[in-house]
Amino acid sequence: MAATDRIFVAQLAGLPVFGPDGEAIGKVRDVVASLRTDRQPPRVLGIVVELVTRRRIFVPMLRVAGIEPHAVVLSTGSVNMRHFHQRPNEVVAVGQLLDARIGVESGAVSAVVVDVAMEPTRTRDWEMSRVAVRERTGRLGRRGPVQVLRWEDVVGLGMAELSSQPQGAQQLLAQFDTMRAADVANALRDLPAKRRYEVADALDDERLADVIEELPEDDQKDMLAHLDEERAADILEAMNPDDAADLLAELPELDKNRLLELMEPEESAPVKRLLEYSFDTAGGLMTPEPVALTPDATIAEALARARNPELTPALSSMVFVCRPPTATPTGRYLGCVHLQRLLREPPSDLVAGALDTDLPRLGPTASLIEVTKYFATYNLVCAPVVDDEDHLLGAVTVDDVLDHLLPDDWRETLHHEEEGVANA
């Protein structure tokens, strides 16, 4: 390995990882170290690399050929492709050390860990030799200076202390800030339960709602159970109504009804409507918040609605046209306009002139198989769900169909791939 000076873990996390031939492998997500009982610096065992498939694997430090300012390069050899599992007495630096509250040996000073540094030893091993800390001043709006101390000079970084003391989450949230919700969900599942809950408590409602939507069912229920009732209701309000309904449907009846009572009426109403349908029907799959406009809306208005960044690509691919009201269940459904058609029409024209009135509709009781055949037949990623009285009830998107076609544990299967070995 090329000679490398002291490296701070927070700067290492997120760097791209390349194989010896320059091929992209993934990104560094954490550093794994083995804690010692004598308070000597922990030995760095390796790095956690997130592959492009989102699986996280462990790469020993002996396989790291070089650490550059903008990348990590691996040496030639085999890599164990088994999903990373943390062992007893191992610590993950980003996940467990950052934001930990510690004491300073030289005095009765309370501080917070903002970073840890690792450096090579004369035996070619690596160890976590330094801890960057910020004194906890207790004064609002005031932040103490950062000091870089030797590992031996701080108190409170043993496994017992890390497992029992409360931690903040600022440094870890900074790592998550640029990650997709699905990747944050994946990362949370790798954290110890205590740390996972601390991060959940620190995330804002919108972000936590997005992350919970990407968790497997059991983890969703566990996370919701951790939150107090008021915040759990707020999170459900921030979730997509169809995802909130799926989660509530898995809860005991008393818990489900209690959370629905705590939700704002305008937020709980669409969720209650979805709960009336079986989860494997068009009514149970649909979102009750499609893009719906009246026939006198212009093409420009329709495009503006489709450009809403909060819409998924599938949901923005189709605009539904109805008589007032446009909130579901709407007035009489007239037809839909495909996004490609909107792009071809003059912006000042009305959507009524671009309607696709021939596209068949899905009924709310259509089975999952019928919905799947519908998408395959008409090559769509979004479809209208209309009742017998021509009211638009919502829209089914292809991602919801895939979610229910895949095995119930598909997220866990992706997370825990079977063991394998690949050459880098």
Automatic annotation (TrEMBL):
Looking up InterPro entries in the UniProt record yields:
CBS_dom (IPR000644), CBS_dom_sf (IPR046342), Mg_transptr_MgtE_intracell_dom (IPR006668), MgtE_N_sf (IPR038076), MgtE_transporter (IPR006669), PRC-brl_dom (IPR027275), PRC_barrel-like_sf (IPR011033), SH3_actinomycetes (IPR058838)
Has UniProt tagged this entry with the keyword Zinc?
Answer: no
Q: Which CDD domains match?
A: CBS_pair_Mg_transporter (cd04606)
Q: Which organism is it from?
A: Kutzneria buriramensis
What Gene3D superfamilies has UniProt attached to this entry? CBS-domain, MgtE N-terminal domain-like
Q: Which GO terms describe its molecular function?
A: magnesium ion transmembrane transporter activity
Lineage at the top is: Bacteria, Bacillati, Actinomycetota, Actinomycetes, Pseudonocardiales
Sorted UniProt keywords: CBS domain
State the superkingdom: Bacteria
Protein name (database record): Mg/Co/Ni transporter MgtE
Where does the record place the CBS domain? Answer: 286-353, 355-413
GO CC aspect terms: membrane
Q: In the UniProt record, does the keyword Flavoprotein occur? A: no
One Pfam entry name: MgtE_N
